[in-house]
Specification:
Number of strands: 4
Helix content: 40-55%
Structural class: alpha+beta
Radius of gyration: 21 Å
Number of helices: 5
Distance between the termini: 65 Å
Largest sheet: 4 strands, antiparallel
Oligomer: single chain
Shape: elongated
Length: about 110
């Protein structure tokens, strides 16, 4: 099998990826809305096309199981962010708490407390 990563309707780095290891290494640098397309070069047709399918979620989950995603801050922003859940960062937890406190205070002011 061979793979291409598509971002903004273009092949990432114009490259056909032939190994799963190379594919897993490229995923953390991909865009959030990227797609991973798998095709079989052995099934090339006369018009030089080949059957293709979107394997984005399967590949991301396999890459995650192989330990390809090690930086939650970055991984949330790449293709992995669409399919995997990452723990919240300390800043996100603090921001969420501050937002809840603000909403509670606002509600109390509206209710005249």
């Amino acid at each position: 099998m061979a793979y291409i990563i598509i971002e903004d309707d273009q092949v990432l780095d114009g490259e056909i990826i032939r190994s799963e290891a190379d594919l897993f290494n490229k995923l953390p640098g991909s865009d959030f809305d990227a797609q991973v397309i798998e095709f079989d070069v052995g099934e090339l047709r006369r018009d030089k096309s080949a059957p293709m399918r979107d394997v984005s979620e399967d590949v991301v989950r396999a890459a995650d199981a192989a330990g390809a995603f090690t930086d939650p801050e970055n991984d949330r922003q790449c293709i992995a962010g669409r399919f995997l859940d990452f723990p919240l960062t300390r800043d996100e937890i603090d921001e969420d708490r501050a937002e809840r406190r603000f909403e509670e205070d606002r509600y109390e002011r509206m209710m005249g407390a």
